[in-house]
Every structure is written in C-alpha cells, then in structure tokens.
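Board notes (copied after class):
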Amino acid sequence: MRVMFAVATAALIGMGGAQAQGLACPNVRLVVPYSAGGATDVAARLVAEGLNRGLKATVVIENRPGATGNIGTAYVAKADPDGCTLLVNAAVIATFTASFSKLTYDPIDDLVPVGGIGITPTLLVTATKNKADDLKGLLAWARDSQDGLSYATAGYGLLQHLAIEEIARRTKERFVLVPYKGGAQAVTDLVTGRVDLGSFAAGSVLKQVQEGKLKALAVVAEKRSGLVPDVPATAEQGLEGLDAGVHFMIYAPAKTPKATVDMLSDRLRKVVGDPALKDRFAAIGFDPTPISSEEAAEVMRRTAKDWIPLIKRLNIRLD
C-alpha cells in the first residue's frame, strides 16, 4: 500500500501543464481576433509569456481575424467552457449589440471577463503649428471656424470616433469627420495640417508626439495616462465622465466555472502587474491594467452604458 501511495503521489506531483492548475488541458489557446503583428497581437504575446510561467502550461496564440474581430470572438464564445480557450479583445465589444445587426454572440451573456491586460488611451492631437494647446484652445478654435474643424480617426464607429462626436454633443461645437481607410495616411495629413484634429489610440501617434511632429491636447479619460503624463485628461479640462480608452481584456466562455475564472484571473493579475511588463507595454501604447474579473465586468457594463446611446443616436452600423 505504501508503494502504491508513493507512486500515486509522485504521479500527482508530476502532473504538468495546466492540468496541475485545475484545467482539463495541457495547452491553453489564447485567441487574438486580429491579424498577427498589430498592437493587440503583440500585447497578447507578451502576456502569454508570463502566463506560460504562471500556469505552468503552454499558452498558444491563435490568430482568427475578420469581421472587426467578431469571427474569433464568436469562436471563443461558443468554445467549451473549460478555461482552455480564451480570448483577447477590447471592452468596446460590449457596444457591438448596437452597431452590428447580425452579431452571432452576446458580448455580455456569452463571455466572462477573466481580467484586464491594458488600456490604449485615446489622444486628441493636432499639428504643432496650430494655435490650440489644450481642450479649451481646441473648442475656441472650433468656435471661431466658420465650417467647424475637420478631424481624422482610424476607425469609424469605434471609440476614437465616438469620443469626438460626444465632445461635439456636449460642447455644441462642430467637428467634421474626414474618413480614412487607414491610420497611416491620416497621421501624415495631421502632421502636415491638411486635417485639423486627430483622435487616435496612443500607440498610433505617440512617436509623432514624442518627436514634436504632433502635439497632444488631451487624453480622453478621467485620469492622465502614464504614457503621456504631461498631457491633461479631458476631466481635468472640464469634460468629466468621458472615457474613450480602449480597455483590452482576456475573456473565457460564459459558463466557465467561477473557480477556473478566479484561478486564471489571479495568474493574469500577477503577469500584468509585473513592473517588467510596463516598459514593454509602453512601446505599443498600452498602460497595464491588473484588474480582477469583477472589475473587468464592470468596465464592460460601463462601456455599454456610456456609448450605446450615442451609437444609436448616430445610427452607426459596422456590418
């Protein structure tokens, strides 16, 4: 009996991978619903490195791009709820029930947030030669402009676009969207002054701001960002309750047991809270957010509450 007990104990101790952590798989698939090489993909790979150690499992990145991320997201929403298939995406998916008419999953009901990865703050930027230096100056410039100010953003219907529309609604100033197929040409036109204002994820314009080719007027948030600590938030400049930061999170299928979600959340917070990750995240325009599953779920609810009314008012459709 002692020999059998020793063998059984050794087998339990020797169980590797995620099985030793309560998962039913040796490998964990972390689905990125966008193409490889972008900021979301890079952030996912950095987090996966840490999870490999924290879970003592192999975390495999699986890119499933298409349909504004909905192909990969729907895949995870319908996956087995065993903690072995996870998703990286932004809390803005909470608004997709309003902006997509044929969504094949419910972002609130079919997914459970495991925890936060990072925030990509939204920056309002303009050419350095322009007279506005802050939000007050921007609004005065818009007021003095007969036709309003032109603005560029890289994503119609996403938070950077919605941020300007909400500012326009609150201030009654006029801002005219100039559509671009991609961010690169929009940023070039911003630098040269062909378009007045830009609303972009920090990673898209941080280099130009640091090089003095663009100046940042505000972070569209309640608090400043560690990426640009000298740039005041919109709340500091009189527009409170406005947060257009893109909160990236890890999600699991909704029916994943709470104990599994809690275990994954604990491991994730340790990875994201590691000071060594901060500089690596800064390079892609991310502020780390080591928040719990419950806190991440609240971000989802708040994102839906804050932005769905505006999406409906503007009749925005992304499909």
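Comment from the instructor: Residues 118 and 288 are 4 Å apart (CA to CA). Residues 1-20 have pLDDT under 50 and may be disordered.
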